[in-house]
Amino acid sequence: MRDFQKILNEEGIYTEDKHNKSSNSFKIGESIIEFFSADDSSKMRGARRDILFINECNNVSKSTFDELSVRTKQCTFLDFNPVAEFWTHEFMYTRSQDDYTFIKSTYRDNQYLDINIINEIEKRKINDPNWYKVFGEGEIGNYEGVIFTNWATVKAVPESGKRVIGLDFGFSNDPTTLVDIQYSDGQLYIDELCYQTGMTNRDIANLIKGNKEITNAIVVCDSAEPKSIEELKLFGVRAIPAAKGADSIRNGIDLLLQYRMNLTNRSTNVVKELRNYRWKTDKNGKSLNVPIDYFNHSIDAIRYGATYLLGSATKSIIPKIHLPR
Fold it and tell me: Helix crossing, 226-234 with 201-209: angle to 10°?
C-alpha cells in the first residue's frame, strides 16, 4: 500500500481526497482500488470486485483463494516466490494452459531495482544457493535443511495463558518485529503484531500502549540495544533485555523445537520466515548446523520471548521490573 501511494505521488496523481484511509482504498478515475488483509473473513465472503490481485499467495490458503476468486468478475492475478510447490502448482498441473498465463520474472527484469539490492541478491549465489535458486532465478526451491517444521496456523489463540511479547529492533533495512507469544496446554501460540521498517522507539511504544491486551505485558527485547530498551521504559513499556550468552541462538532454536508453534492466520511474515529459515551448508551441500543469517527477524523475537516465558535464565537475572513514575 505504501509502494502504491509512492507510485501515485511520483505520477503526480495522488491527492488526499482520493485516499480513504479508514477503508484503505484509493479512487483513481472511475476505479476504486482497495487493499485488505486475507485474514479479514468479511472481505472474502462479502464484497465483489472486477479484478483481484493476491500478493504472496503461497501465504494464503486454497480455501481463501476460492472464496475471493468466486467473487471476482474478470480475472485474478497471483504472485509468489517459489519457495516450494503449493496449491498454485497443483492448479497449473491439472488445468489446460488456456486457463491461465504463467509469467516468471527475476530481479534482472526489474529496471527500477536499486544497485545495492542487486549486489545483495547476487552475493547469495555462493553463500546461500537454495535461496538464490528461488529469489534470484525464480526456480522452485525446496525445504531441504529447513529448521522449523513443528508449526501450523490457527484461527485464534487461547483466551487465557502465560503471555510475553518478543521484540527485535530494526529500522532502515531490517524490520522491527513484535510478536505476542502465549503458552497454553504445552504449546506456543504466536500472533504477529508488527513487521515494519522505519519504526522509532516512540512508534513501538505507542503500538504497545495502544493495544489493551498487551499494554501491561513484559516485552523481551534484543539486548544488543540497551539504549532503546531504556527509552521504551521511559515511555511506560515493561521492556527487559533478552538473556544472551554462548550459543544462545542455537539454544533458543533447540528450545523452540520442543514445542508445537501455532501461528495466527495473519502472521504471514512469521510464516514466510519459518518456511525459509534453514541451516547453512558447505560447498558440498552438507549441513553446518549453523542457521543462515536471513529470514530471522520475527524468529529472533520469538526466541527472546519464548526463552523468557518458558523459564529462561532471564527470570533470575531480572527478578523485578521498575517503571518510571
Answer: 50
Residue 263 or 157, more confident: 263
Angle at 16 between CA 11 and CA 19, to 5 degrees: 85
β-pairing, 218-221 with 162-168? Answer: parallel
Q: In this predicted structure, what is the pLDDT of residue 143?
A: 61
pLDDT mean over 65-75: 92
Please say whether the dihedral angle defined by the alpha carbons of residues 12, 17, 22 and 26, taken in this order, is positive or negative.
negative
What is this structure's pTM?
0.63
Amino acid symbol at 109? D
Judge contact between 92 and 100, C-beta under 8 A: yes
Phi-psi region of 285 (alpha: psi -120 to 50; beta: other; left: phi over 0): left
Quickly count helices (H) and strands (E) in the chain. Answer: 12, 14
Strand partners, 107: none
